[in-house]
C-alpha cells in the first residue's frame, strides 16, 4: 500500500487525465460538501431550539389552573380552578422525594414611580425558589429571600430595562420606588439573556402581594423543579402523578385537559430531540443518495480507465503481475481519488461553517457546525466509497486474460 | 528445458470448433535457439501462447524445466511466467508512460526485488542492449529498433529460463531486424534458451533449429547451420 511504485503509477494516470479526474473527484467532493452542510444545518436548528429553552431550568414543571371543560364530581363544566397557598404545601408534603425547588407565582400589574419617572410594569410575585427555577441572573443586589417572604417585606427585584427607565444612571439598589403608591425597596436588578420583555418585569415576594391585594392566598401558577437525577421516564412519571393528584384535589375530571395543565420541560426536550434526530436522519439519507451518485461516477470512470488500459494490464500479467496486484492498483487509485476529493469537499464545508457559522444566531438557527465525529465518519465513508467505486472495475481488470489484452491493438 | 507431448488446442467459433493444434510433440534443450515457422493459421502463435502460459491447452502434457504446467491458477501462472519466461512481442508492448529504465525494471518489481537493486539491474540490462544513455526516455522518444531492444532487455531482466519472441522483427525494417537478431544471438551465446516465432526465412535461418508448422502439426524439424546476423549489420 505504501509502495512508491504504486503511487507513482497512480499519479501518472491522474496526471495524464487531469480533466477526467477532476470531474469525477468533483462529484464526490460535492456530495461530501452537501452531506456536511446538511448535518451542520440540522445542528444549527438543534442549537437554535435548545438556546430558547436554556433560559429556564430544564428540569422544571409548570402547573397551571384553568377552566374545567367537563362536569365532574357534582360540579358543572366551566368552573374556574383556583390554586391557593395550601396547594404548594400539599405538593411539598406529597412529593418530598421528587421536587427540589417550588414556587408559586401571582400576577399583578403596577404603576411604578421613582422621582419624576413612571412606568407600568408586570409584577410576578413569587417565592424565593423562583430564581433557581427560572434561572434568573441577578447582576446587582440579591433576589428575594426567605426572610422577605416571612416578613411580607415590601421589596422588589427589577429587570434591567425597569432600572434603566426609572433610575437612569442612578444605582437602584437600596432606593425606594412607589408601586401603586406603596413604597418598595429595590433589592436587586436582574437580566434575562435573549428576552428584553422579561427585563421589563418586577419580582416581589408573593406573601407581600397577597396581603396588599385583599389578604388572599390565591396563586396563579405553581412552578417546581424535580430531582435532576431523574431520567425522562421518571420525570414524566412524576409529572403524570402530580397531574393526577392535583386534579383529584381540585375535583377535575382525570381526562380534562383544560382544568389543570401540567407542563414538563422534559417533554418538550423529548419532542425536540426526536424532531432533530428525524431531520438528521433525513440529512444523512439525502447526503448518502448524492454520495452514491458520486460513487457511481467514479466507478464509471474507473471502468473506462480499465478498458483503456486493458493492454497495459495484459503486459503486466505477461511480466508476472498477480491478479491481486492488479486489483490493488485499481482500488488504490479509486480510493485515492475519492478520499482526496472528498477531503477537499469536507475542508471546504468546514471552512465555510467556521467563517459563516457563528454569524447565524436566530432562534431557529444558531451556529451551524459539525462535530469531530461527523468528520471522522465522513472520512470512513469516503474510504468505503472509494473501495466500492473501484471494486467492480478492479475485478474486471484482474479478469483480463493476458492473451486477449495483448491482441487488443 | 521444454517438453511437449501430444498437445491439442481448439477454439470455439460460435457453433463450430476450430482445431488449431492437432497433437504437437516437441522438445527443446537448454541453450537452443529455435525458430518456429509457419504461415498464418498454422498454429504457431497458439503454440507460443500455450508455451508462454498465456493460454491453456485442451489436452497433452507440457513440462517447463521439469515442472508440469497444467490447470494453473491465475496466481500460479503469474508466478511461473515471472520466474520462467521472458516475452518479446511484435508490437514491443512497452508501457508508454514509463521510461525505458522503468519498463525494464517492471518484471523485477513483480519479483519483489528492492527498488535500488531493481534500478541497478535494469540499468545493467539496458547497457547490454546498448541503450544506457536512453534510460530516462519514454518509449515514444525511441525508434522501433530501440523499443524492441528495450523489450528484450525487459524480458532478460527477470533472468528467465526461456525467452519467447513472437515475431520480434515483424514491425521492423530489415536492417533493424538484423540488429535485433544479432542481439538475440548474443543472448543465446550466453547460454539462454530462446524460441522465436517468425514467418521470415532469413530470420529463421539465424536460429540453430527450425520447426515448421502446418495446419496444427509439425511437418518438419531440422537443425541448421546458423547464419550470424553480425554479417549483415
Report on this model:
- Chain A is α+β, with helices and mostly antiparallel strands.
- Chain A folds into 2 domains: 4-52 and 270-407, no CATH class; 60-264, no CATH class.
- Chain A has 13 helices and 14 strands.
- Chain A has helices at residues 4-16, 18-53, 85-94, 130-133, 146-151, 160-167, 206-212, 232-249, 265-308, 310-318, 323-356, 372-398, 402-407, and strands spanning 60-65, 83-84, 99-114, 117-126, 137-141, 155-159, 176-179, 182-191, 201-205, 218-219, 221-226, 260-264, 361-362, 365-366.
- In chain A, strands 3-4-9-6-8-7 form a 6-stranded mixed beta barrel.
- In chain A, a hairpin with a 2-residue loop joins strand 3 (99-114) and strand 4 (117-126).
- In chain A, helix 1 (4-16) packs across helix 11 (323-356), helix 2 (18-53) runs antiparallel to helix 9 (265-308) and helix 9 (265-308) packs across helix 11 (323-356).
- Chain A is elongated, with a radius of gyration of 34 Å.
- Chain B is of the alpha/beta class and 233 residues long.
- Chain B has one domain (2-95, 144-149, 156-232): 3-Layer(aba) Sandwich (Rossmann fold).
- Chain B is 33% helix and 28% strand.
- Chain B has helices at 44-51, 74-84, 100-110, 115-128, 144-157, 174-189, 201-204, and strands at residues 2-13, 16-28, 33-37, 59-64, 67-68, 85-88, 162-166, 193-198, 209-214, 217-223.
- In chain B, the strands form 2 sheets. In chain B, strands 6-7-8-3-9-10 form a 6-stranded mixed beta sheet, with helices on both faces. Chain B has a 4-stranded antiparallel beta sheet with strand order 2-1-4-5, covered by helices on one side.
- Chains A and B meet through helix 1, helix 10, helix 11 and helix 13 of A and helix 2 and helix 3 of B.
